[in-house]
Amino acid sequence: MHAADSASKGLLRDQQRALFAYAAVGEVPERQMDHYKIAVNDLGANILRGGLCAAIAAVQRLKEKGSLLLEHLANANVPGLAGATREDLARRVRELGADEYMLATREMLRVAVWLKRAVQATFREE
Prior knowledge:
CATH topology: Peroxidase, domain 1
Distance between the termini: 30 Å
Structural class: mainly alpha
């Protein structure tokens, strides 16, 4: 999410997240849609169940099937994780202090909700 671009347009954070999610989901190649959908659908529950670190680890365990989602999460401009890459996202999450971790968890959960909504709205059902 490009905060400077969105902030200059006067968008609310939730609107910024929605724009980011729909743009991210729009770039998912058709051959990866099934795996991406499964990973996105699991993400929010995994964050709530085990925390942000565990949820990121679950996506990492998917290897190639989860790499695009990791890239999208790294690019979501979550506080404390700005500038992260898919390769260093997990390390950056682990290095957060307690307050930063709680904020990043809350924000990442909101991103996960918007990614799930975008997947539901744009991926075709079979």
